[in-house]
Amino acid sequence: MFGTVRPNLRSHGYVPEQPVGELVASTGFSVIRPRDGISDGKYLFFSILGHEVYAQSVNAAVGSNYPAVNDRDVRQFRIFAPPLEEQKKIAQILDSLDTQIRRTEALIAKLERIKQGLLTDLLTRGIDQNGQLRPAPDQAPHLYKDSPLGRIPKSWHTRSLGETLRLQRGFDITVASQTAGDYPVVSSSGITSYHNQYMVKGPGVVTGRKGKLGLTHYIESNFWPHDTSLWVKDFHGNNKKFAVILLDSLRLGRFDAATSVPTLNRNFVHPLLVSVPPVDEQNRIVEMKARLDARTAKERRKCERLRTLRTGLMDDLLTGRVRVTPLLGEAQQRKV
Known about the structure:
Elements: E1 2-3, E2 29-30, H1 41-49, H2 51-60, H3 71-76, H4 84-122, E3 144-145, E4 152-153, E5 157-160, H5 161-164, E6 166-169, E7 183-187, E8 190-195, E9 204-208, E10 216-219, E11 224-225, E12 229-234, H6 240-249, H7 266-269, E13 273-276, H8 279-317, H9 325-335
Parallel strand pairs: 7-11
Antiparallel strand pairs: 1-2, 3-4, 5-13, 6-12, 7-8, 9-10, 9-12
Helix pairs in contact: 4-8
């Protein structure tokens, strides 16, 4: 099915030969059916996703707000049409890559869910000296004590955020006044530029004050915190990477003090009560999170490589620049 409205979005779809139940196609789609003995449905699907058909559809689209093509335009699109067996082999190769990409994306989503659940446990139960999560309070009540925030591990303390991490407003600087250099200028959304001067020695932690709230950034080098940000001026001896975890958990965006442009007032959040583990336990929490982050990052890199490979193969196989005829010959020999 070819999405005819805004074809640049490539909102196309593939319907298998035996779909579950009856289907009705919207008028925003052009239905493409393979011809028996001539074309393969999956190959046609990959072809309409390819760059060649994309370019033709964009050129044929009419309209400014809702550019669209019609059925006649779709029928006139030109594609590379190798023999049917070669089409099937190309479709098989690309379909296999799509399956790997979907599985990797599902694993990344699962790891993110695990991380969110783990962070909740780490900030309420913590890690014992053996590197294991403590049992929950109902399973081991002797390991916990009462606090204004509920039951917390006995070695933890309840303090205000200001007593734990002292936030300070950043320093104003315009793009015009900057000179290219090595020191990152960190705004509410992260690093936006590099300047030849810094205001804070790294490593440090920055969170959004104005514009984009709730994002926390760990900066390894010396840096210039922008006026749209808040930076941690005093960590009070706490692990700096644990500070990122703690600030993220507070969802500071909910304390927006403005009406039009989101703004965070540090005086509103400094009185917040937080439960804080000892520094040695903070270190263990940071290490556990880092291991999970590394696993997720590895899968993201793998997924990006697969997407890059898929794009390259589509460009080669769907244009005939690279043929799979040798693979077909090998398959025939194996059958014999």
